Amino acid sequence: QICLSLVKLLFYLAHSPLGSIVLLDFQPRQFVMVDGNLKVTDMDDASTEELSCKEDNDCTLDFPTKSFPLKCSVVGKCEGINEKKNLFNAYRYFFTYLLPHSAPPTLRPLLSDILNATGDLRYGINETLRAFEKVLHLYKSGLYLQKRPLLLKDYISLKGFRTVEGEGYKCWPSYSHLGCLLSIHSAEEAAAICNSQLQCQSFIITQHRTWTGRPLASFQSSWTDLIPDANTVVYIKRSASSGERL
């Protein structure tokens, strides 16, 4: 969410009515999240000036660990230097820390492609935004899910109830530090997750949703009783419920 929001912001800066805008003091502390969108807190160090040049050799974009040769345009400006400077700073301050983590395994190669392409400046902001939107579409639609045996049949489903949580366990990446709370595309995906975790005996699908509209599921290592809750559905492994009175 943070990286996509940043890319949308940089897309706007690259195509603003004032021209391509560069953020000269590009640091994480210069950004805040407001209602799920990343915003710049200080535009004092923003500029629409692009480096003047006479030849291509005048257009080297230098960073502490990398340098990129750019073209000198016919009007004597280094082509795309503001856009590329913003994008590489996004890569080194945000993408490298956030993109490799938390994504479903089948989407990680696509995020690695974005990471590598922006790190080498092979992608401009237009291509980067399209790549992010493709990953978001696959994630929201569930098209990233690989075909696998149907596992939900191994669970008892009880609507309008939830379990009294027994001994919980933690997992990564969880939306709660107190337990194992993950976003899912469907109950079938939740069943696959539960089956992949040795501690998991049941899970609850709530009405709470993430910014992409995916429901949250709480995975639990045990359960004791059932209590009414109109907003949840509890799924209990048949093997865990055998011998217990539902």
Automatic annotation (TrEMBL):
Pfam families: PIP49_C
Domain FAM69 protein-kinase per the UniProt entry, residue ranges: 2-116
Molecular function (Gene Ontology), one example: non-membrane spanning protein tyrosine kinase activity
Gene Ontology process terms (BP): skeletal system development
Originating organism: Rhabdornis inornatus
Name the record gives this protein: PKDCC kinase
Signal peptide: 1-19
Membrane-crossing residue ranges in chain numbering: none
